[in-house]
Amino acid sequence: MPADALTRIGTVTLNPAFDLTIPLPRLERGEVNRAQAAELRPAGKGVNVSVMLSVLGEPSRATGLLGAADCAAFEEFLRPLGIVSDFEPVPGRCRINVKLVETAAGEVTDINPPGPTVAPSALAALMRRLERAPELMVLAGSLPPGLGTDAWDGLVRHLSAAGRRVLLDSSGPAFEAALAARPFLVKPNRSELAALLGRSLPDRAALIAGAREVQQRGVSHVVVSAGGEGALFVLPDACLWVRPPAVPLTTTVGAGDAMVAGLAAGLARGLDAAALARLATGCAAAAVSRPPGGLPEAAEIARLAEAAHVERL
Ligand SMILES: Nc1ncnc2c1ncn2[C@@H]1O[C@H](COP(=O)(O)OP(=O)(O)OP(=O)(O)O)[C@@H](O)[C@H]1O
Ligand SMILES: [Mg+2]
User: In this structure, is residue 22 part of a structural domain?
Assistant: First the structure.
């Protein structure tokens, strides 16, 4: 049996990164800042989803485009987590996203460089590689320079035509273009949905109307996250608002990725609407309250999923 025969979920990251996280009491601009610690680890939205899936006990295949010289480091990081690293190598090194965490104020400053310019032929090579794609595919994050705004659209079509269910978490013009390909699920946050629809979404009624509009465009599962207020789940057979339980806040970085991981795992497991929304919310709440620099635990996710408040709309 191949090593990943049990892998039901794949993630695609077209513009991965190393995240360099540096905690400082406070940032002194224009000064030498001496940090006590720093962490450098492979990341990017799809990679983060794969990592959260491993916490849930779901092996996954992480794929996408990655600087050839960085493939070994990603594989070394992912393999112990039960994640198969299957990136299409491209020339150049992947970017380093700097996260300056000011611990006193609880503020994070992100500096995200663009990443290497990618030739369109790399996307064609990735599509060939995706012939081995698992049944559920998570497409997440931004596009590297060099790819057109139709990159996600092309991948959604390619994977859907091959019978895969596609979960898309992206934003801006590439997200808008890919909607026409009717992914199975999308998870914009409030401002991403507002940008897509070209209008503000000031209250819950506006969010529900907006999500239904996306559903009518042919996306059966529309999840709109709204930070600490929770998320709206417009699903084929239910419309739910789920609020996370109160948790101590460590960081909101990666909350959306954790929610997408919960959605993917829940769909792979065939959960009903309420259980799916609870699992997604439990993952997100566990991610925002995780130990600094660490990962949440499966038992904590289960506890928070149980404690989430589900409202049927
Ligand atoms: N402050 C918070 N307290 C508790 N839960 C939170 C908080 N912020 C976010 N969450 C949980 O995480 C989910 C996703 O958060 P959010 O809407 O911020 O995602 P996002 O903007 O896509 O994040 P990302 O930056 O990771 O892409 C929320 O629906 C909620 O369940
Ligand atoms: Mg997001």
Answer: no
Please count the structural domains in the chain.
Answer: 1
Ligand 1 atom 30 nearest Cα: 230
Q: Is residue 200 part of a domain?
A: yes
Structural domain that includes position 56: 9-15+44-92+117-312
User: What pLDDT does 4 receive?
Assistant: 63
Q: What is the pLDDT of residue 294?
A: 85
Domain assignment present for residue 151? The answer is yes
Residue 232 in any domain: the answer is yes
Of 294 and 16, more confident: 16
Catalytic residue among 19, 153, 169, 257: 257
- What's the confidence (pLDDT) of residue 1? 36
The neighbourhood of ligand 2, an ion, using CB within 5 A, equals: 256
Ligand with smallest separation from the Cα of 287: 1
Over the stretch 192-220, which tens digit does the pLDDT of each residue have?
Answer: 999 999 999 999 999 999 999 999 999 99
Query: What mean pLDDT do residues 259-279 have?
Result: 98
pLDDT digits (tens, 9 = 90+) for 302-311: 999 999 999 9
- Known active-site residue 153: no
What 3 state SS string does the chain have?
CCCCCCCCEEEEECCCEEEEEEEECCCCCCCCCCCCCCEEEEECHHHHHHHHHHHCCCCEEEEEEEEHHHHHHHHHHHHHHCEEEEEEEECCCCEEEEEEEECCCCEEEEECCCCCCCCHHHHHHHHHHHHHCCCEEEEECCCCCCCCCCHHHHHHHHHHHCCCEEEEECCHHHHHHHHCCCCCEECCEHHHHHHHHCCCCCCHHHHHHHHHHHHHCCCCEEEEECHHHCEEEEECCEEEEEECCCCCCCCCCCHHHHHHHHHHHHHHCCCCHHHHHHHHHHHHHHHHCCCCCCCCCHHHHHHHHHHCEEEEC
**CATH number of the domain within which 295 lies:** 3.40.1190.20
